[in-house]
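Thread title: Can someone regenerate the structure for this chain?

I was given the following input by a collaborator and told the matching structure tokens would be attached. They weren't. Posting the sequence so someone can regenerate them.
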Amino acid sequence: MAASETGTAAWPGRLPGGGSTVSVIVATAIVVADMIGVGVFTSLGFQVKDIPSGFAILLLWTVGGVVALCGVFSYSELGAMFPRSSGEYNFLSRAFHPAFGFLAGWVSATVGFAAPVALAAMAFGEYGKSVVPGVPPLALAVGVVWLVSMVQLAGVRQSSTFQLISTILKVVLITAFLIAGFVVGTPQPVSFAPQADDIAQIASAPFAIGLVFVMYSFSGWNAATYIIGEMRTPQQSLPRALLAGTLIVLVLYVALNAVFLHTTPIDKLSGQLDVARIAGSAIFGDIGGRIVGAMICIGLISSISAMMWIGPRVMMTMGEDIPALRVFARKSTQGAPAYAILFQLAAASLMLFTRSFEAVLDFIQFALLFCSFFTVLGVIKLRITQPDTPRPYRAWGYPITPVVFLLVTAFMMYYLLTERPLQSVLGALIMISGLLIYAVFRRRDDRATSSPGRE
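Best answer:
Regenerated them for you:
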């Protein structure tokens, strides 16, 4: 059954009994938690190596946030038009064809969330070593994934409470780190005001390539679109949650990079991966590394929670549409898609034990960008082909904002194709496999529908 043909006459994909428990504050927390992982704490060292300018670095992160906002406006329009959980699976099915939606859903449901969950969990284990010495990182990683999954299985209300508390704690700790950096840290001779040679830095190839990795740090701005069906008044709440969450992260990202540069000599940051630990040591002394490690660990719990919440909703919605996947659509009495959560838990655990998540992440990047590109392109297509369809929210700045997002995303895909051709081709093969599986499911459904004795 096509995605556009399922659900009730109102909004398909709602909780049992028509209830919806996710407020705009919790949806915003999901966006913030999903976006802030380890990227912002590790990227700066490679950026200052080629862009030794405080102003250019902060502009780089600001541009990344603005591009993410351009995506927010387009996704908000689609989400308000089609308020159903599952993100790109829902949007591409509506804007293009159910097969295209299945392609995106197949990538997300199988590895698109499980791999980032495993990566975040492994990072939790590695940073956890500095907080709890002697405990194997793998044990910490598996433990945190299972713990968060148990919370998700307890129901939407429990998930909401846990997500809100863990995300608020993350933001409070980052804010405290920022204040300490500006108050206690030793100022470095770095200027955040524009200089004469900054134009050359901004127009350089390293700035463009740096933007690719900044955009990876901003990925997750669309997180709330995966749980639209659980949100109160989604036509109003979704745009607010996506906008507020992305703006909060934009401010925190710019401020964090400013603190790193303000407190730590650029030559000590250049080429280093663990810039947050280096900056923490510069601010707090010998215990700085442990303080930063604890801060990142607590923050990663909220990130894992967000992904373990939104990822299974893709498989759940696919199960509502496709009889062969119907088991994943089953919900507990508390509204949790239990089988879909257990499926993602199994996939993430397998990747942790086999250490395959890094390779998987490498070859799904192109597929994820591809799906985001066509989702935003779908806004333009629907404006042309369905101009009279009700749009409770219309993308701000249209058509400029979607075009900006499309251009930057196209550049990122081009970069991946030229720099990582093998991984990009493997990502394309994953999508093609999704189309083949969709064809098999459709043929099976058609046979079942046309068989004698069916009503």
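The chain has one domain: 14-445.
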